[in-house]
Write a structure and sequence with these properties.
Elements: H1 2-6, E1 10-16, E2 20-26, E3 31-41, E4 44-49, E5 53-60, E6 64-67, E7 70-75, E8 78-84, E9 98-106, E10 109-115, E11 117-127, H2 131-134
Parallel strand pairs: 8-10
Antiparallel strand pairs: 1-2, 3-4, 3-11, 5-9, 6-7, 7-8, 9-10
């Protein structure tokens, strides 16, 4: 009941002696369940919708190149921008260091996201933000 209250949902219980009990759960349509890839970067847990993930690959630091002052990798004749969420990403690492790269497709653009550790696949409940947060910059 407390979870439904937090989600602004409700529960209705209808019991008939000798017949049984019926539970009617109502949850707002602003909720969605998605499959997500869970990963960690600098001990923080992140999720990205699985339908945006093209593939997961491993590259070495020596596979990372600089083009127009941005890091990129070449993957199957395609040059992909590389994004590192780790604040220590600018620290020079050994050229043989292996990196997990999650290749993501957003619209018609692909990029590689460097992650520290893959956690797995999870189903997540997504709830729409309150109206006063929707207009806030950097909140998604």
């Amino acid at each position: 009941k407390s979870v439904l209250d937090r989600l602004k949902g409700s529960v209705h219980i209808d019991t008939k002696v000798g017949i049984g009990t019926r539970f009617l759960l109502k949850v707002p349509l602003t909720l969605a369940i998605i499959k997500a890839l869970m990963f960690r970067v600098a001990d923080k847990l992140y999720a990205i919708p699985l339908n945006a993930v093209v593939e997961i690959t491993r590259v070495t630091e020596s596979d990372v190149h600089i083009v127009d002052q941005r890091e990129v990798i070449r993957l199957r004749e395609e040059v992909l921008p590389l994004i590192r969420l780790n604040p220590l990403a600018n620290v020079k690492l050994s050229k043989s260091k292996k990196l997990f790269v999650v290749v993501i497709n957003l619209g018609n653009r692909k990029f590689g996201l460097v992650v520290d550790r893959l956690v797995g696949e999870e189903e997540l409940v997504i709830k729409a933000l309150d109206d006063h947060l929707v207009a806030t910059e950097l909140v998604s």
